[in-house]
Specification:
about 350 residues; about 0% helix; 19-stranded parallel beta sheet; 15-stranded parallel beta sheet; mainly beta
């Protein structure tokens, strides 16, 4: 189907009941980026079974319905895509929004996505009651020649993240704001600035690593801070590792950490809570100070290696028979009143 008019509206809503809308073949704009398609399905279901905008992307796509199921890719350029669902949103194929186009998805229940891509423009996912799962794809709002786009994900339920990229080459990376009951990480998160400025990452809810993950907020013009205000755990328990690349940004842990391994490159590193690592080393490389006031415990042949330019302050460190190395190039090293314990239990 080709949309010859600049604005096309399909309405199947009704007070006594709403009809479904199903696309079993492709939908294209008559020319690149001119058509605007609006679907008003009320509580009916929208099924997209073939690509929309594959040959000629639409300027905008606006969907209002009950459930929305898309098994075809969607391409928009100009304004973007807006989805408002009173049910669930299930996207098994990519949405690509070019130029100034944005992606905005709101649902009452669960949201499941594949790849979502903009060219440095915002991506918003909001569910009123359901889970949000982007682990089936990459959410990418990065830009090579301007600021990265902000990504916002909000729900009172759980969020599972795949790979996230808000980076920029020369400007300011986009922010990632994630609010949910629990945040599961299954892919790397990149809010770095390359030769620009990285953006801060703050997790206020419990974080669970479902596989090894790297968080990168570095930037030559300035690195973003990484802050965990709630627990960090691994699933399987104490198996997956976390790498934090903050450049000259700071790292802050405000609740317990239970992981496989932990590697940090940052300016200052502070932890107000215990850190327990099961299968890998604790390695910290700081260009300023390191303050670990609570217990550090590693097991199963894991070392502790802490290097800083300035002061290093620790509490108890226990390594189950493995080395502990603390090295400061200019500052003091203070372990009192903590105990450094490398004994191997009998």
């Amino acid at each position: 189907m080709t949309l010859d008019a600049n604005t096309v509206t399909l309405t199947t809503s009704g007070t006594a009941g709403s009809g479904n809308v199903t696309f079993n073949n492709t939908v294209d704009s008559n020319s690149l980026g001119t058509a605007n398609l609006t679907l008003e399905a009320g509580t009916g279901t929208v099924n997209i079974n073939q690509a929309i905008g594959e040959t000629n992307p639409l300027n905008s796509l606006n969907l209002t319905s009950g459930n929305i199921n898309s098994n075809g890719g969607i391409n928009v350029t100009g304004e973007g895509i807006n989805i408002n669902s009173s049910g669930t949103v299930n996207l098994t194929q990519p949405i690509t929004a070019t130029n100034n186009a944005t992606i905005n998805i709101n649902a009452e229940n669960n949201i499941t996505t594949a790849n979502l891509t903009t060219e440095g423009k915002p991506i918003i996912l909001n569910s009123n009651t359901g889970n949000i799962d982007s682990s089936g794809g990459i959410i990418n709002s990065s830009s090579t020649n301007s600021n990265g786009g902000d990504i916002t994900m909000t729900t009172p339920a759980n969020i599972t993240l795949g790979e996230i990229n808000t980076s920029t080459q020369t400007n300011q990376a986009g922010t990632l704001a994630v609010t949910g009951q629990k945040i599961g990480l299954t892919g790397n998160i990149n809010t770095s600035g390359n030769s620009g400025t990285g953006s801060n990452l703050t997790f206020n809810n419990p974080v669970e690593l479902n596989q090894p993950v790297t968080l990168n907020t570095s930037g030559t013009a300035g690195g973003g801070n990484i802050t965990f205000n709630n627990t960090i755990n691994s699933l399987p328990v104490n198996n997956n590792g976390l790498i934090l690349e903050a450049g000259n940004g700071n790292i802050q842990f405000n609740n317990t950490v239970n992981l496989g391994r932990l590697e940090i490159n940052a300016q200052t590193v502070n932890s107000n809570s215990p850190i327990t690592l099961d299968t890998g080393n604790l390695r910290i490389n700081s260009s300023d100070t390191v303050t670990l006031s609570q217990d550090i415990i590693t097991t199963n042949g894991s070392n502790v290696e802490i290097t800083a330019t300035n002061n290093i302050i620790t509490g108890n460190i226990t390594t189950n028979g493995q080395p502990i190395t603390l090295n400061s190039s200019t500052g003091n090293i203070t372990t009192n009143p903590g105990i450094l314990n490398t004994s191997f239990p009998e």
